[in-house]
Amino acid sequence: MSMNVFRLCGDMSHVFSILVLLLRLRVAKNAQGISVRTHELFLLVFVTRYLDLFTTFYSIYNSVMKVLYIVSTASIIYTIRFQEPIKSTYDKAQDTFLHWRFAVAPCMLVAAVTQFFTSGSGGFDLLELLWTFSIYLEAVAILPQLIVLQRYGEVENLTGNYIFFMGAYRALYILNWIYRAHTEKGYQHHWIVYACGVLQTLLYVDFFYYYFKSKKKGGKFKLPTTTK
């Protein structure tokens, strides 16, 4: 994969979002407002997408980033689910999105249908199926976290920054695709990736609006609340 300023900034934004969340957990020792289910979805995204770690070497940078995403996301899940006193602050009652039923299962079904109609005479390819599944799942993986934030209403500063950098990562990757399409000869377009990337970015639009609004006013970051 070709490197450019948009991809690099996107990767760094993604890494920074993870560091901000880990900092929040370690310093505040509080998981209130954090969705473990979102991170379980992201871990599944990374594990199914990066199976090529065992088959193809692209670069040291590429391999290190893939391992970093998997290990850091697993660490976040372990910290919230099993480490005290953080575990006691995690509010399961607010993190109730049925992610296996309404995210994982539908995305696997759509990936299987996509594989069926695009495989042609190439036959079934498990790695391709899992890669496609990861693209669909990443598009909706943030949903449990956004739902939790709306239920709480008021968003803690570091949590807000974490979500912002996650959204910025995806928006920067869209710019990366546009840049590569205009500068690389023979650049291969992935329309499913584009569609899912745009959908994922759109899910952040409401959050971005209230995030920048709170920064401009200098007050507490609040989202419109939903009924608990």
From TrEMBL:
Q: Where in the cell is it found?
A: Endoplasmic reticulum membrane
Q: Which GO terms describe its molecular function?
A: ER retention sequence binding
> What cellular component terms from Gene Ontology apply here?
endoplasmic reticulum membrane
Q: Which Pfam families match?
A: ER_lumen_recept
Q: Where are the transmembrane segments?
A: 57-78, 98-117, 129-149, 161-179, 191-212
InterPro entries, alphabetized: ER_ret_rcpt
**Protein origin, superkingdom:** Eukaryota
What organism, scientifically named, is this protein from?
A: Seminavis robusta
| Main localisation | endoplasmic reticulum
State what protein this is by name.
ER lumen protein-retaining receptor
Determine if Transmembrane is one of this entry's keywords: yes
The UniProt keywords, alphabetically, are: Endoplasmic reticulum, ER-Golgi transport, Membrane, Protein transport, Receptor, Transmembrane, Transmembrane helix, Transport
Q: Which family does it belong to?
A: Belongs to the ERD2 family.
In the bilayer, the protein is annotated as:
Multi-pass membrane protein
Q: Name one GO biological process term.
A: vesicle-mediated transport
